[in-house]
Amino acid sequence: EFIDGLSPTPLGRAVTRHFLAPDESFQLLDGIRKGQHPYEIVADMELRDEH
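== Rad24a/uvrB domain-containing protein ==
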């Protein structure tokens, strides 16, 4: 049960479960849409945090 019987999307569930910021969420979605390998997406997110 989510909110008033609503169900989150798979992306929404991942965002809330891992406490992702909105910009991280969009970066994740962009990587998925571009067909990047999951490891590439994670690496890009980690490298982004260093700058």
